[in-house]
Design goal:
Distance between the termini: 33 Å
Strand content: 35-45%
CATH superfamily of the largest domain: Nucleotide-binding domain of ferredoxin-NADP reductase (FNR) module
Helix content: 10-25%
CATH class of the largest domain: Alpha Beta
Largest sheet: 7 strands, mixed
Shape: globular
Strand order of the largest sheet: 10-9-8-7-11-12-15
Number of helices: 5
CATH topology of the largest domain: Rossmann fold
Order of helices and strands: EEEEEHEEHEHEEEHEEEHE
Number of domains: 2
Structural class: alpha/beta
Length: about 260
Amino acid sequence: MKKYIHDFEIIENREINEGHFVLVVKLSEPLPPVFPGQFAEVKIEGSPNTFLRRPLSIHDVDYAANTISLLVQRKGDGTTHLGTFKPGDTLNMVYPLGNQFHIGSAGEKVLLVGGGCGVAPLLYLGKILAKNGIKVTTLMGARKGDQLMEPEQYQRNGELLITTEDGSEGTKGFVIHHEIWRERNFAFDRVYTCGPDAMMKAVARLAARNNVPCQVSLEQTMACGVGACLCCVVDTTTGHRCTCTDGPVFDASELKNWID
């Protein structure tokens, strides 16, 4: 798939909570095709300690408005500085990078599982799945209620289930503690997940126990995004592969020691 380097205009910087924000950026020409699961490498101007681009999941795409949304966690100097960008500022991105989630067929039922800011690629995925006639259930986890990532956005795509570690909203515990995993008839055709590795491994094993295929979106350090720097190599059943080019989406069964 063709890659682009474009300057976008920031039209919104929306605070979600203390540690996260959403940037909505607009292109002056029609957007190229962007698929669920892909990401962008973002140049952060004005941050003296940020030498490399930062990989960010594509959170949503609106072709009518010609915009892309990025859900960002304030984690270091680069992403913290990115949070200071204002409407009218320019954001340079290399995109769309990586592969995509498998969409499936109309009439299927799927479960999307996200922990923390790992829900970022699941919003656009859920929207595309729903548009294709697939019944979407999203299971969203956070440490506490005020750290949930705009749950109302995900609710537009279908059923929404919530877990919080402190029990302030939804089921108390992690996403793997939700009762949906213990239902006698785990009637999903596919599970998709993104978040911390430990969470995704647990989700993948629960899916395997229910004989349901699971796709995971890995959150790795990806300095270049095009397979040159080799800092995002992951061990798979077919050898070492680059997360940025062969992923970030993998079948859990491809990843060594994930569901064994």
